[in-house]
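Progress report, Aim 2. The chain analyzed during this reporting quarter is listed below.
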Amino acid sequence: MVIPGTKTVGILGSTGFLGKHVFACFTENSWTVVGGSRRTNVDATNLQSVINWITNNDIKYLINLAAYCGGIGLNQAKPASLWLETTRIMTTIFEAARLTNLTKLVQIGTVCSYAKDCHVPFKEDYLMHFGEPEPTNRAYGMAKLNGLYGCQAYRHEYGINIIYLIPVNLYGEYDNFDLKTSHVIPAMIKKCIEAKMKSNSEVILWGDGTPTREFLHAKDCARAILLATMQYDGAEPVNIGTGVELTMAELAQMIKEETGYRGNIVWDPSKPNGQPRRCLDISRAKDYFGFEAAINLRDGIRGTVAWYLSTYYGL
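Predicted structure tokens for the chain:
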């Protein structure tokens, strides 16, 4: 199904990691795409700035990817900043949707909103049924969860078509490789490549290697967002993932192999593990708009490593 190019989608956060993939995906599928970010033309925390951007570009569909987020290190260092900025962005966008003539708003949530001890696989109905999010990402997770309630409240009171998607951990080209703020896959890739280049005998990773995670390539996530924008209009949140779970130790071994690093992986248990397990029930996405992930993890990591070497080292 291809949407005619006369339909215009605005992508807030279009210059970010996921935003670049979403921008490309919608463009390739014949949409008229308008990018928006604070560094270019719109401030997602300023209501008038967002309204002007929507109306001046005749935007009918809006994808809100704008957020302040990062890995465990950033979540521990700046929980208040993460909570405040994320909340300000979402409330601004919801008000802008109310005051303009949007056909649909697509709000992106986070897997961090699920409780620390949530039953696995995580079903959307489990949100807040098993306690609060894991402490290392609680502020960000709670802010995004509040955004879900905001979506449903605006839908109920004002009749706005807002859908809410919950992607699992993302990775891929254009990711953030700054060790102070990055997520786990880019951090592991960078550490292994630098250790290989310096002939270091070991790489030290956070935690003990036992937590599990599920990872989705950003290209697959972009395709899910496109499908949901075209085909889903419901109030229920929808998980976006692969349904495949692996331990941090298994992930580290895979990245070690794909980077060609031959040293030792050493775990530092004095650093936090984060959530014990993380794996989504992905049945709604398949049932509601036909999404299934296409990129397996090893192939995706191989491509990300190649992109990182080309971009940062010219190799």
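The domain at 8-175+215-244+278-296 is CATH 3.40.50.720 (Rossmann fold). Confidence is low (pLDDT under 50) at residues 1-5. These observations will guide the mutagenesis work planned for the next reporting period.
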